[in-house]
Amino acid sequence: MAKMSRAQAAARGTKRDADRTVGAAVVAAGPSRNLHARPQSTYEARTAKIFTVVQVLLVVVPVAMLGYVWLAGGGSVDGLRDAMEQNPTITVSFISAMCQPLVAWLLKFVRDHYQAGDGGYAAGNLIALICGELMLQNAVGVLGCALLLWRIWKKIPGELAAWKEDRGLGGMAADLSGAVVVCVVGALCAFATWRIGLA
User: What is the chain's Cα-based Rg?
Assistant: First the structure.
C-alpha cells in the first residue's frame, strides 16, 4: 500500500475524501438493502394525493376542536377555561386534537421514505401511528393511516422484513421514535379517559 501524504491524511472524512461519499451511501441505504425510488405511476400519484389529503384533515382537527371548545365556553377565554375545568373529557379531547399536527408532520417523513423505496419504514410507522390514534380515539387519524397502509401494503412485498433485519432493534426504535411519542401521549389520554369513566 502506498504511503499516505499529509494532504491525503488531512482530507480523510471530509468532502475532499473520495471514499467518503461511498461510505455515506452505505450508511444511508444500509448494508443489506438497496433502495430505489419508486417508479412514478397513476397509482403512486394517487397515493401521494391521499397522503396530502390525510395530512390536511389532521391539521384541521385541532382547529375544529378549538372552535368547539371555544363555543362550549361561551366564546370567551374565561368560559373556555371554565369549560375545560368542569369537563375533564373536553380537556382530554383537546390534548388528543393538539397531537394531530404532529401526526401530519410524521406522515411527511413516511411519504418521503416510501417514495424513496423504504417501504418497511413507511409501514412500520403507519402501524405505530394507527395504534397511537386508536388510543387518542381520533377516527380521522385511524381511518387515514389505515387507508395509507392499505394503499402501500401491496407495493412493499418483503420490504418490512428487510427493514427489520437491516435496522435491528436500536435502528427500529430510532425510526419509530416520533410514532412512539404519539403512542405515549395516546396511552396517557386513554388512561385519563378510563379514570374519568370510573369517577
Answer: 22
**Residues 139-185: tens digit of each pLDDT:** 999 999 999 999 999 999 889 999 999 999 999 999 999 999 999 99
d(C-alpha 157, C-alpha 90), whole Å: 42
The span from the CA of 40 to the CA of 57, in Å, is 25
8 Å CB contact between 134 and 172:
no
Task: State phi, psi for 82 to the nearest 5 degrees.
Answer: -65, -40
Specify the 3-state DSSP secondary structure of 54. helix
Quick one: angle between helices 177-198 and 159-175, nearest 10?
A: 70
Neighbours of 50 (CB within 10 A): 15
Output 47 or 34, whichever has higher pLDDT. Answer: 47
Q: Are the CB atoms for 160 and 121 separated by under 8 Å?
A: no
* % of the chain at pLDDT higher than 70: 78
